[in-house]
């Protein structure tokens, strides 16, 4: 190696021949590993190590063999160093100007391009690659056919989105297990091949039977309605459940579902930040929306100019600053908004000593979900840092989404899936109960529902081990965490059987811009947990995964049907 590097440095040919051994972990080496395993592997390694046959050891290693490296260096402990992860990148990535870079960031706002292509040509494999590549941001031609998709960042929720997209492509229903139980693109293609061959889809001519597309078996598409933008429209079932709980105040809990957080920043330009927010108000209709007393909602065409409330604390002492911030935090974190009065959010700025600023942000979840918060903050930062930036115009609105989903609720597929869930949930167990002991029958006041945020950190080694176990079980880390959480609840509630309502943040891919609009678009579903002996935890992994296949049927819609 020294001689080779020296020759390269001196730009001359190397005199001695250097053999370079290469391998590809993406290729299936299971047959070799299966053949040379157990006792045979031990004997092979003993012979090669005894002979110090480094060439054959290198060949065995690049083919996927396990080498006991310490046995090569008996008597001393060698120092191991890590090589660069990608030493020979084949593609070029150019640095653009600041303006170009801002636009490219916006184009990536989260995965908005996955539905951009309406038709496909070519093989089934190329279509699967194209869709998966769009979801995880990897060029389709760079996706390995035999590498586990979860190692590329493909999640269980993305498999649900992939299911919907492929159903649109092929004009037929695709069971979630057809995708979620397959670890590689190659396996997924084999699983889909027979199903797709039986559909009316023809990849060579890009024709799908019109009858299939109109049979009610596929999801509807959003049709923009610019003319009706400011007309009233119905609330969805999740909004209705939030509104009902707030009006009835079950258990005396006055605080509605809403989000509060704080952002600390140095050298903040409040005027510029406010201007950026005004542009977001113009862009996103739901920032100007109210819920009417009759249960409908409406986007206001015009609203007053919104100005942040500011408090100058720069001349206060630390005790006074701490008391003021805590007072604001207690008020805004548990604020109850009147749903028919705009705005359904509040923004305050605290100016602190040493050029420190605190942004207090509160918003009602009647008009936004968690993924919408992520989008809102990202666009807010972009417009603040670059006031001249022009975001691409939105073709659709949350109102268009609601109208489209209401249309789908009249389809044959929705009725069939709703009937399935109603039968499954006829004897659904109650949710877990934790109130025990001598005070279990006492009346609770609003103070009993004060919320605090808890957080913790799982060490890297433990998290890596947990993900490895999830891979062995062929489930996502999310399913593992949810299963562990369920077992924790089982222990502390003392209930063998109970139900949970799961919140799923995947949005139905009804339009290429579905991930760029703000509104309450998340889905909910039931998770029924029953005691199954020692296999309960492992079984619940797969139950959780299978329940993700019908996310257009929400927990609230099933309850309403009863």
Q: Mind explaining what this structure looks like?
A:
- The protein has helices at 2-9, 30-35, 39-51, 54-62, 98-107, 124-136, 156-170, 176-180, 185-197, 210-213, 237-248, 270-283, 318-333, 370-385, 398-408, 412-424, 460-473, 477-493, 536-546, 555-561; strands spanning 233-234, 258-266, 289-291, 296-299, 309-312, 345-352, 356-364, 498-504, 523-529.
- A hairpin with a 4-residue loop joins strand 3 and strand 4 (296-299).
- The model is unreliable at 93-120, 200-215 and 558-562 (pLDDT under 50).
- It folds into four domains: 2-73, no CATH class; 112-213, Non-ribosomal Peptide Synthetase Peptidyl Carrier Protein, Chain A, CATH 1.10.1200.10; 233-396, Chloramphenicol acetyltransferase-like domain (Chloramphenicol Acetyltransferase, 2-Layer Sandwich), CATH 3.30.559; 409-438 and 455-561, Nonribosomal peptide synthetase, condensation domain (Chloramphenicol Acetyltransferase, 2-Layer Sandwich).
- The protein is of the alpha+beta class and 562 residues long.
- Helix 6 (124-136) crosses helix 7 (156-170) and helix 12 (270-283) packs across helix 14.
- The strands form three sheets. A four-stranded mixed beta sheet has the order 2-7-6-5, with helices on one face. The chain has a three-stranded antiparallel beta sheet with strand order 1-4-3, covered by helices on one side.
């Amino acid at each position: 190696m020294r001689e080779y590097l020296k020759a390269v440095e001196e730009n001359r040919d190397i005199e001695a021949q250097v053999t370079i051994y290469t391998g590809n972990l993406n290729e299936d080496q299971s047959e070799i590993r299966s053949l040379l395993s157990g006792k045979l592997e031990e004997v092979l390694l003993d012979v090669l190590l005894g002979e110090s046959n480094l060439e054959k050891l290198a060949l065995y290693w690049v083919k996927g063999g396990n080498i006991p490296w310490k046995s090569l260096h008996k008597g001393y402990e060698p120092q191991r160093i890590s090589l660069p992860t990608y030493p020979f990148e084949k593609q070029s990535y150019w640095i653009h100007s600041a303006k170009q870079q801002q636009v490219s960031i916006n184009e990536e706002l989260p995965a908005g391009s996955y539905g951009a292509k309406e038709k496909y040509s070519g093989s089934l494999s190329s279509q699967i690659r194209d869709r998966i590549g769009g979801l995880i941001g990897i060029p389709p031609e760079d996706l390995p056919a035999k590498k586990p998709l979860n190692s590329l960042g493909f999640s269980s929720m993305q498999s649900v989105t992939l299911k919907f997209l492929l159903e649109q492509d092929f004009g037929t229903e695709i069971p979630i297990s057809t995708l979620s139980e397959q670890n590689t693109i190659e396996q997924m293609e084999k699983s889909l091949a027979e199903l797709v061959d039986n559909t009316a889809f023809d990849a060579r001519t890009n024709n799908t039977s019109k009858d299939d597309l109109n049979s009610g078996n596929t999801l509807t598409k959003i049709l923009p309605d610019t003319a009706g933008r400011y007309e009233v429209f119905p609330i969805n079932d999740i909004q209705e459940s939030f509104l009902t709980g707030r009006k009835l105040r079950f258990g005396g809990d006055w605080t509605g579902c809403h989000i509060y957080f704080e952002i600390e920043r140095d050298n903040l330009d409040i005027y510029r930040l406010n201007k950026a927010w005004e542009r977001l108000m113009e862009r996103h209709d739901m920032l100007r929306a109210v819920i009417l007393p009759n249960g409908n909602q409406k986007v206001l065409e015009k609203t007053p100019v919104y100005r942040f409330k500011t408090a100058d604390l720069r001349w206060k002492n630390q005790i006074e600053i701490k008391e003021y911030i805590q007072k604001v935090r207690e008020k805004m974190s548990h604020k109850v908004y009147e749903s028919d009065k705009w705005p359904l959010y509040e923004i305050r700025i605290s100016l602190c000593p040493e050029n420190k600023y605190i942004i207090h942000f509160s918003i009602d979840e009647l008009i936004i979900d968690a993924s919408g918060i992520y989008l809102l903050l990202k666009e807010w930062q972009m417009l603040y840092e670059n006031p001249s930036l022009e975001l691409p115009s939105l073709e659709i609105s949350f109102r268009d989404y609601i109208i489209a989903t209401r249309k789908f609720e009249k389809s044959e597929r929705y009725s069939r899936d709703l009937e399935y869930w109603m039968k499954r949930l006829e004897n659904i167990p109650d949710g877990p109960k934790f109130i025990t002991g001598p005070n279990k029958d006492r009346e609770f006041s609003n103070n009993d529902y004060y919320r605090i945020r808890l957080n913790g950190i799982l060490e890297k080694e433990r998290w890596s081990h947990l993900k490895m176990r999830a891979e062995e079980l062929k489930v996502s880390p999310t399913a593992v965490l949810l299963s562990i959480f369920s077992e924790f609840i089982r222990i502390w509630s003392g209930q063998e059987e109970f139900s949970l309502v799961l919140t799923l943040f995947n949005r139905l891919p009804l339009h290429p811009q579905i991930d760029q609009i703000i509104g309450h678009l998340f889905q909910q579903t039931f998770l029924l947990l029953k005691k199954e002996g020692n296999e309960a935890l492992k079984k619940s992994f797969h139950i959780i995964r299978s329940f993700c296949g019908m996310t257009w049927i929400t927990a609230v819609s099933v309850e309403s049907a009863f």
